[in-house]
Amino acid sequence: MNASLHDDGARLSDADRALIDRYLDMLAADRGAARNTLIAYARDLEILAEELRKSGGLGGAEAADVQGALHPFQRLAASSQARKVSVLKGFYYFLEAEGLRSDNPASALSRPTTRRPLPRLLSHEEIAGLFALAEERAGGEGARDADVRMLCLLELLYGSGLRATELVTLPLRAWSAERPYLIVRGKGDRERLVPVSNRARAALQRWVPRLPIGSAWLFPVRGKPISRVRLFQLLRALAAAVGIAPERVSPHVLRHAFATHLLEGGADLRALQTLLGHADIATTEIYTHVDSRHLVELVNARHPLAQMQVGRRND
After folding, report:
1. Do 295 and 287 form a contact (C-beta atoms < 8 A)?
2. Is the pTM of this model over 0.85?
3. Which residues carry out catalysis?
């Protein structure tokens, strides 16, 4: 495993280091885990290995030792505790499956109950306000490059539901005027096809000719992809200019608005899962906090029973 993934300050035995590296290699090769995921797993395992150092380390710990190693983390948020439990369970399951241990000392661990918070949501009127100002600034042949780029970024965030990292790292080759979609590389290094709306296509066709000759990126800044931090800054500046509190706006808020507004329009949850690039539909389900009145109207309008006359009987 690449040494840069490790915390050089962690005092680990060679045996524990070898076990962690072997597990991370499996995650990278077999499951396509992203680099940030590997770094997080490595950090968690190194911290837990340090807690277990006096009990034989990760390789020699018993069930009681493993349970005790988690005790100092009870002050953390439930989500952080749950991640450490999940990492330990997966790690020891791997060791057992590989014949490196005859048991799984983490099998009895229970994960704290967590509830994924709902992301903030912008109304249709607020979204319209953002687009109205972005379109006004980008209008006309004399528009600044920065304003044309801002409109393009906004169209892809809200019109295609891209993650911030996916958007800023789009290579120029991801887009072609001959295709109605972008080729996006998302979490876990998985590729997916993301439809491009007519509005986004028009914005891209205005923006791409303005790119520096030879640019490898769709949104470059001095030869490198625009940073996520800069994207946040641009969005919040636009929000402030419209009169929306800047802290309410982020790339993820626009992605969430994309998903929620599609569902309000009757989109299928499985289709939305594909558009968002979620490996697990359970992740997509956090976007289903649609107004209950709308759901009732949807059932009344779309369900086959809605087409039957009340009181009608077959002869």
Report:
1. no
2. no
3. 163, 187, 252, 255, 278, 287
Contact in structure between 167 and 186 (CB atoms under 8 Å): no
Instruction: Indicate whether 237 and 292 sit together in one domain.
Output: yes
**CATH number for 30:** 1.10.150
CATH code of 216's domain: 1.10.443.10
**CA quadruple 137, 139, 143, 148: dihedral sign:** positive
For 66-125, how does the pLDDT look when each residue is reduced to its tens digit (9 = 90+)? 888 888 887 777 778 888 888 888 899 999 899 998 888 988 887 666 555 555 678 889
